[in-house]
Amino acid sequence: MSAELSLFYFFAALAVGSALSMVLNLRNTVASAMSLVITMVSLAAVYVLMEAHLVAVLQIMVYGGAIVVLFVFVVMLLNLRQDDFPPGRQRGAKALGVVLVVFAVIKLLALLPAALPDTVAALPEGFGGYRDVGTALFTRFILPFEATSLLLLSALVGAVVLAKRRLD
Amino acid sequence: MIEAPNLRLEALAPFAFVAIGSLVVLMGEVLLSRSESMRNAPSVDVRIGTILSFLSAGFLLLAVVVAAQAYMSNTAWSFNVDNPMMRLDRYANFAIGVIGTAAILVCALSADYLNGLRIHHGEYYALLLIAVAGMILMVSAVDMLLVFLGLEMMSIPIYVLAGFDRRKLRSNESALKYFIIGAFASGILLYGMALLYGATGATSFDGIRAGFDPDNALAIVGLGLLVVGFAFKIASVPFHQWTPDVYEGAPTSVTAFMAVTVKVAAFMALVRVLTGAFETTIEPLQDILWVMAAATMIVGNVMAVIQENVKRMLAYSSIAHAGYLLIGLVAGTGEAHAAVLFYLFVYVFMTLGAFAVIIVLAHRGKDAERFDDFAGLATQRPALAALMVLFMLSLAGIPGTGGFIGKWSLFGAAVKAGQVPLVIVAVLTSLVSVFYYLRLPVVMYMRDPSDEPRRMTTSSGEGFALLVCAAVVLILGFFPSEGPGVLLLDNLRVLHWARDSVAFLP
Q: How far is it, in rounded angstroms, from Cα A157 to Cα A153?
């Protein structure tokens, strides 16, 4: 097993482990958010192993930085405690959910052996670099790239409308 | 050196008109409210509202005209030749025509209603137009990426529109509920698309179709999540619970917009995705759709019976109609898909008409939405009551209305495709629906009016929308053959349009 592959397994395991700790940590939401940071950073490391440096940097900046900071802000602003949540209802639905999740996990685990790589995949020249990403954005994906601006505008207008203080 | 992509801007024409329209409206409101002549005029807001409403309708009309022309000339344009993520073919043009027309009618209905609620106009129309632009992307997409982008561009403005009446708690609740459930649904949809990408290595419909392997669990799970995401949007059981609350709380003009255009856009996109990216004969897909169709018809129709609020009743009715439409998907033949398109065409006008009557009756910012509010309407406003009866009869599928022809062609196509048990469920639940649809006429004609003051006027915009809806519902019901040929619209012609449109599905 090459060094690259063992690094991949290390970061992949870290990503999965911290993702699990994020979901299973029910007591402290901030700790959950921090676990999410570890997941994001491990994913960024996996991107680095794929030589997609631009994507890796964006991953850390956008997800590890901006989005998790937003999560933490919201968590702290709301400052919810366990007692603030209504007592557990719909026990039947919960039991059904657990059964379905266990079923799905068993199914997915069965898929796992075939999915585990034992060699490093070959990547095309320049894959994931700023040049390739930029070219793709402005040629093949020009329409979604430009159309996104309208989507962001609508979100902006919507936020102003709903959050402005004066009720006229 | 990067080579310039090979673009065809014509393919974007309808989208561009609507998108530019949203920007013009957004800026127009600011400029108008600052101009000298406007500032000193009495009732500025009302005037600006009327201007903006006409402006938005104008841009929508441009998009509809372009789409109609492209439809007639039977062209199929891709925007980007190297990576055709969207295709403006007859199917997309049909959808744009229907959605655009419905949005124009909503604009006509909105101006006065918003004044009554004292809602600001500028952002309202801008968001409405952006939502329509998103729908246009969604129905013309042939790539999952663009389907998702269009879906979000449609949904986000509507989350905001649902909460536009900020003084009312119910409107806030409606927006929040729709946002949270909608965002959840988008997440599920996106996860499905990601799994499909993982299984097939493609986001384009053609690529997914080529790489799809029904024995690959990843691909099947992806397909399932995709269907679930869409099921939220079209309000199909068991993903329908948000519908009544959101429809009830949102301002009625927004509810009308949601009930009509979102349903058309989401449904036509779903048909395009399922026929384009998958073989519709995949067994698990058939089973899922079958169960969903049956459950949607039963739950929608039965729950509608016990509603005391007309908007909630119409919400459950829209769920029920999603169930009928799903039958067409289960049947899966070209004829069934054409019948789905025809049904959507009729559904738009009969549902919009019913909501239009509620909007006309809104008095001093208060909606007439309980059944009691309609008591004695026939003596006070006979014409309006008669129109409401027409829309209710059409929704119930009584012969002589467009709704009957729609159900007839849809169920007929399903029987031909061998879906007899589903059609039996559909006919039985339609019988149940007659009960709650006819409740409103009974209240209007058999009960005495209450003492509460009633709005006795109809604005010209509202009158226009009501007349268009009523005319279409009647014409589609009464002219089953080519007839005299003087009318622009008749049954067979719309059915032809629908058939020619679905010919573009693979």
A: 6
CA distance B123 to chain A (A): 7
**Under an 8 A CB cutoff, do A140 and B79 touch?**
no
Tens digit of each residue's pLDDT, chain B (506 residues): 677 788 888 889 999 999 999 999 999 988 888 877 666 666 777 888 888 999 999 999 999 999 999 998 888 888 888 888 899 999 999 999 999 999 999 999 998 888 888 777 788 999 999 999 999 999 999 999 999 999 999 999 999 999 988 888 888 899 999 999 999 999 999 999 999 998 888 899 999 999 888 888 788 889 999 999 999 999 998 888 899 999 999 999 999 999 999 999 999 999 999 998 887 667 788 888 999 999 999 999 999 999 999 999 999 999 999 999 999 999 888 889 999 999 999 999 999 999 999 999 888 777 888 888 888 888 888 999 999 999 999 999 988 888 998 999 899 999 999 999 999 999 999 999 999 999 999 999 998 887 777 888 888 889 999 999 999 998 888 765 554 555 556 777 788 888 888 888 87
Question: Is residue A114 located within the same domain as residue A136?
Answer: no
Interface test mutation site (partner A, options B149, B151, B186, max chain A beta carbons within 10 A):
B149
Distance between CA atoms of residues B230 and B240, nearest Å: 11
Between CA B150 and CA B130 the distance in angstroms is 10
Tell me the chain A residues in contact with residue B134 when contact means C-beta distances shorter than 8 Å: 151
Q: Which residue of B120, B153, B167 is in closest CB contact with A150?
A: B153
ipTM: 0.88
Contact A157 B160 (CB under 8 A): yes
Report the first-to-last Cα separation within chain B, whole angstroms.
Answer: 37
Rounded Cα distance between B408 and B394, Å, is: 12
- When computed from its CA atoms, the radius of gyration of chain A, rounded to whole angstroms, is 21
CA gap B63, B475 in Å, rounded: 24
Q: Could you tell me the CATH number of the domain that includes residue A42?
A: 1.20.120.1200
Examine the domain organization and report whether A110 and A148 are in the same domain: no
Total tally of structural domains belonging to chain A: 2
The closest CB to that of A143, out of B26, B85, B159, belongs to: B85
The answer, for B22 touching chain A at a CB cutoff of 8 Å, is yes
State both tokens at B246: 């959101």
Same domain, A56 and A9: yes
Same domain (yes/no): A105, A163: no
Contact A139 B2 (CB under 8 A): yes
Q: Choose from B8, B30, B33, B83 for mutation: most chain A CBs within 10 A.
A: B83
Range of the domain at A48: 3-83+93-122
At residue B264, what is the residue type?
V
Q: Do residue A144 and residue B26 have CB atoms under 8 angstroms apart?
A: no
